[in-house]
Design brief:
- The complex is a heterodimer of chains A (266) and B (206).
- Chain A is mainly α.
- Helix content of chain A is 77%, strand content 0%.
- Chain A contains 10 helices and no strands.
- In chain A, helix 6 crosses helix 8 and helix 7 packs across helix 8.
- Chain A is globular and about 65 Å long.
- In chain A, 28% of the residues are buried.
- Chain B has 7 helices and 9 strands, in the order E-E-E-H-E-E-H-E-H-H-H-E-H-E-H-E.
- The two termini of chain B are 20 Å apart.
- Chain B is globular and about 50 Å long.
- In chain B, helix 4 crosses helix 5.
- Chain B has a 5-stranded parallel beta sheet, sandwiched between helices. A 4-stranded antiparallel beta sheet of chain B has the order 2-1-4-5, with helices on one face.
- Classes of the chains: A mainly alpha (266), B alpha/beta (206).
- The interface between A and B is medium-sized, with 17 and 28 residues.
Chain lengths: 266, 206
């Protein structure tokens, strides 16, 4: 059982559906029409390019090239996180890159080597999609978590300094903010996990079924995808925060300015 | 117990004070007073290591305030900042917060001790079970004083301890501080309150 291909003409017919949300965005003057159109165009171009790139990546199937692709994903994810959190490059770039790289390599190779027991864990057919899905999940969790952590520290400075001033270690004083970051970043993942298969059928499972896999295989992959994305996201945010916090406070424990300064328009 | 030599605090081009010297002995109650913007709160923050000195030195219990000693110094201090509003829902949660820290685990906390302290500060035991939103600013201020005292630190640093209190409550707080000072606890406060200032052993004007 193969997957039915979608012709470019049919793809265009499918894209017409975007007219409905755009109509409502325009009617209620949300100001989101332009950004939606740009996002749709970007998605199409990026996916077409990735399609071409992946095709050659799969043909070449060379471990070094595959690993090079991981470095590109880490770099792009780190840059995206910088843009979406508005945290200064000198504070976040290295910690988040290290966090992403260590987590994706550890969890990805654990899954491919010990769970799937692949002879060649660098096989592009498994290596690229698994590392890709890990990166995507880690990015969204890190953006939410880091925003919550740093904005909490800025907003509730009094609590941080009260704890520090009453004998807390630096770890103890920042613990309430890490707690909030984890709650906010992982609550949606936990809620999704709890209703998986009941409220919605998850993406990996649908993809596998459409690709011709049996539902029995698809559900097992889905279970593992949930576990590895959850674990890698947790590992990456903890590594990122623990390294970034060394650059976010001075030697007396005072919080330095971590957010980028907004430049006023002339 | 607390020695400040030739201290200067400057923010950008604005100099708050310079050449400040003070020596506070063990068990003394000292009030820092002065006009708004004279650097009272900044001085307390400097002692806590939260504001850098432009020049001069601070010594707490023979420990020079520096990166290497800051943790040890903070362990000797119970600190209540100005208008402290912790993001806690319950009063009990707010009370327990500093006792959960490693540095304070050696301190024995009991409700009995807390309620005895509450009584001295004219606070009802029922406050312990209430939501923070249900208590007044004055009650919150006195609760935090009770908590700071129960931490049994040799130094208590407090910013505006009586700003939300009536004359009777100010008197209660002063009596309570007297009791602490007799036990050898050094108290350094910032206050504008005339009655409070007059009840301290020493007043330093900035």
């Amino acid at each position: 059982m193969g997957t039915i291909d979608i012709s470019y003409w049919n793809l265009l017919i499918g894209l017409l559906m975007m007219g409905i949300p755009i109509l409502y965005l325009w009617k209620f003057k949300t100001g989101l029409v332009k950004s939606t159109l740009i996002a749709v165009v970007r998605m199409l171009v990026q996916l077409f390019l990735i399609g071409v790139y992946l095709k050659y990546l799969f043909i070449l199937n060379h471990p070094l090239i595959n690993f090079f692709w991981v470095f590109i994903m880490v770099f792009v994810a780190a840059e995206t996180a910088l843009a979406r959190t508005r945290i200064q490059r000198k504070v976040l770039l290295i910690p988040i890159s290290i966090g992403f790289l260590i987590s994706v390599v550890l969890i990805g190779t654990y899954f491919l080597g010990l769970v799937l027991e692949l002879d060649n864990i660098f096989n592009a057919q498994y290596f690229i999609p698994i590392f890709g899905i890990l990166m995507g999940n880690m990015l969204s969790v890190n953006v939410i978590g880091l925003n919550t952590y740093y904005s909490g520290l800025q907003r509730e400075q009094q609590q941080y300094y009260y704890l520090l001033g009453n004998g807390a270690t630096h770890q103890e004083a920042q613990a309430p903010f890490i707690r909030q970051a984890l709650i906010k970043a992982f609550s949606p993942c936990i809620a999704n996990m709890a209703v998986m298969g009941l409220v919605a059928l998850p993406g990996t499972m649908i993809g596998q079924i459409l690709g011709g896999s049996s539902p029995n295989v698809a559900i097992k992959y889905q279970m593992m995808i949930v576990v590895i994305t959850f674990t890698a996201s947790m590992l990456s945010i903890m590594i990122t925060i623990s390294i970034a916090s060394r650059r976010s406070f001075d030697e007396f424990g005072r919080l330095i300015h971590v957010f980028k300064v907004n430049k006023k328009n002339g | 117990m607390l020695k400040i030599e030739d201290a200067c605090i400057k923010f950008g081009e604005t100099e708050l004070f310079t050449g400040l010297c003070m020596h506070i002995k063990k068990g003394e109650i000292v009030c820092i007073s002065g006009e708004s913007g004279s650097g009272k709160t900044s001085l307390l923050n400097a002692i806590m290591g939260f504001v850098p000195l432009k020049s001069g030195t601070i010594t707490v219990d023979d420990l020079l305030l520096c990166e290497a000693n800051i943790d040890q110094i903070r362990k000797k201090i119970a600190w209540i900042p100005q208008e402290l509003a912790l993001p806690c829902e319950w009063v009990s949660e707010m009370i327990h917060l500093p006792f959960s820290l490693k540095a304070n685990r050696g301190v024995h906390f009991s409700r009995k001790k807390l309620f005895e302290t509450f009584k001295k500060l004219n606070l009802e035991e029922e406050l312990y079970e209430k939501r923070v939103s249900e208590i007044s600013g004055g009650q919150r201020q006195r609760i935090m004083i009770a908590v700071a005292a129960l931490l049994e630190k040799p130094i208590l640093i407090i910013d505006e301890p009586t700003s939300a209190l009536d004359a009777v409550s100010v008197e209660r707080v002063l009596n309570f501080f007297d009791e602490l000072s007799q036990k050898g606890i050094t108290i350094l406060a910032v206050s504008h309150d005339r009655a409070f200032k007059l009840g301290c052993n020493n007043i330093i004007y900035l």
